Each structure stands twice: as C-alpha cells, then as structure tokens.
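Supplementary Data S3. Sequence and structure tokens for construct A.
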Amino acid sequence: MFGISFSESILIFLVLLIAVGPKQLPTVSRNFAILYKKINLFVRQLKQSIDDSLYDLDSIKQDYSDKKIEENKDDKTD
C-alpha cells in the first residue's frame, strides 16, 4: 500500500491501538480510509489533467511544426 512491510504495518497498528484505544480505532481507521481515498482521487485527477495538458501542448507544437514546414516549402518554391 505505502511500500511498507507486513511487520511495519503490525507495528503501526499496535501504536495506533495504544494511542487511540480500542474503542476509537475503528472510527479512526474508517476516517483514515476515507481521507486516503479522497487523496488518491485528487492525485489521479491531477495526473490526468497534467497528461491532458501535455497532450494538448504536443498537438499545438505539432501543428506549429507542420505549419513551419509548409511555409518553408512555399518559400522554396517561390
């Protein structure tokens, strides 16, 4: 999940159990899972937005390059 091993996740669980207590642990875990999902969704949307922008930039660059090539051909034929 976060690049941690099983033993590290057990240690985190035990620390949370001691810090939060057994009564609040399910609530804290649920809230953490909701926050984690929201952050993941935000990161995916941000990546998609950046990818879309880069694709648009590449197509604009290609159009500009094609136009320059066409202008150079027209200049050579004159």
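Construct B, processed identically:
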Amino acid sequence: MRPEGLAVLGTGTGVGKTVVTAALGMALRAGGCPFAVWKPVSTGGVRRGRRYVSGDAIWLRRVLGLPEPVEEIGTVCLRLPLAPAVAGRLERTPVDLGALRRRWSALGASGRFVLVEGVGGALVPLRGRVAVADFVAGLNLPAIVVGTAGLGTINHTLLTLEAVRARGIRVAGVVLNGARGRDPSERTNPGAIAALGRTRVIAVLPWLAGVRTDRSPLRRLARRLPAREILRAGRRVR
C-alpha cells in the first residue's frame, strides 16, 4: 500500500523546510488528520553513542510529539554537513536507498498521511546521480516547494519548479518562508512566482523569533496553512 502524503522540497539549504514541515503537521493535526513525518536523509548529524542522528528529526519528534523513535523519523543520517552523496563517499557509508524504500513501505502500512521532508535543495545528490527530486518521484507524491520570501527567490523557485516537474512530480504549491517586512520584493514575489511558475503560492510565512524553541510561534504559522487543501493535494488520484 502506497502512503498518501506530500513531499516538502526546498529551493536550497536553510530556507525553512523543517519549520514548514512542522507547521504542516500542526495544521493537519488541527484538522483531525493522523499523520507521520519522515526525513529520509540528513547530514551534519548529532552524535548519540556510536551513531549519528538527525537534529531535525529530534526537533520534529519533540515539537510534534511523534511516537516513532528518532531513527525512524530520520532514517539515514551522515556525520559531515555536506550533500549526502559527498558525505557518504567521504565517510565510506553511501546512502542505503534500499533501506529508505523499506521504511517507505512500512509507512504505507500505517495508514497515515505522510509528510516527507527533503534534504537541501531538490537537486542535491543523495547517492551517485540520484537527487532528492529523483527519489521523491519514485514515491509518487506531489510536492510543496519551500523558498525564501525575499529578493532572489523568483529565480531559485522557478528553477526548482522546472526541475521537479521535469521528473514527473506534481507541484501542489509554493510556500515562501521568512518574510520580515523590510524587503519590497516580498510583496511582489508571490504574484510573480504564481504567474511565471504556473502554480499557487499557498502561504507567505513570516519570520518569527523562537520558532525552534517554542510551540506558540509554530502554531501561528500552522494557522496560515490550509489543512484541507493540503489533504486534497496529497490524496488526489495520481
């Protein structure tokens, strides 16, 4: 059984994919939808005993109260803060794509809506020439693209949309993250991206202090996300 869900892909590193994933989870929970969160691959891990675990997975588990152990939320985690294919080569531990597929099958058996967070940008290599977007295409999930809200995001977002669609991934929409209200392009970027990218900008999320340490700002972000539309996007027949 293939899980229903949505991939969260970024235009690059540091655009806020993990915060958006957490806010999406909160929005789904508020709408009464059972969900799971999966970050298949991470790098720059936190040491726990003899292994490294994903710092993002630790945070997602805590802030969303997820029942799974961290190692299941973040299946593969490498030590070096590099692209996974590069880190895997240097550490002599290439990303085990078979292990990821087995975890995906297990998530399918759970019957929950699955939020799958990518690592870095959509074309970051996981292993060899297999990029994040290639892996997501194999999951047969639609994707939300997360980009920054300010100047420069038009180019980055349109390039990501083009790369994602070239792999047969349906784009459910775009989330622009981290708006501070100082950059005039924050007002014009959503319309430009919607028109040029032939997509919908689902939300423009503000930069909020303490979002990684306090649930209250995260709840404010979640209220800006349309849970029903997110569910429809992930459950549409593909």
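The domain at 5-235 is CATH 3.40.50.300 (Rossmann fold). The chain has one domain: 5-235.
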